[in-house]
Write a structure and sequence with these properties.
The chain has five helices and seven strands. The chain is of the alpha+beta class. The two termini are 13 Å apart.
Length: 172
Amino acid sequence: METFTHINENGEAIMVDVSEKAVTKREAQAEGIITVGAKVLRLLKCGSGEEGGVLNSPKGDVLAAARIAGIMAVKRTSDIIPLCHPLFISKASVDFEVLEETAQIRAVCTVKTEGKTGVEMEALTGVSAALLTIYDMCKAVSKEMVLSDIHLAAKSGGRSGAFVFGQEAVRG
């Protein structure tokens, strides 16, 4: 029978005991979308200039700030999500893809560690912070932006093994 790992037999929230788990290489990738709309995308690309594909706003390089915010959030996940273990992060990256036809920006956060617990929450927190930073830096132009489709795209390592989004139904 499957159970929630962060709930004990009395229904109380707990931090999972990982003391008996093996240290393994672990990686997680999360992604999400922000729909910024044509006006914001146009201003990001043209309003402050486009240099080498970098999107700029009056507040600065939007994607550079969002990338840094995402990486910082990865490193602080255990401070934000109450039952997460603090982890030594060996890699954190945030990459972006501008989807011009839909006026969206796709963010992908990849996190790696060697430890006793996975980095799924770190990747999800990183991608969320990156998208929220884009919103914050562009909200003066339009508040009609939508964050969506934030999800774990893939993970590897640990006792549960590999996961790829959309293939869970195949595994049962």
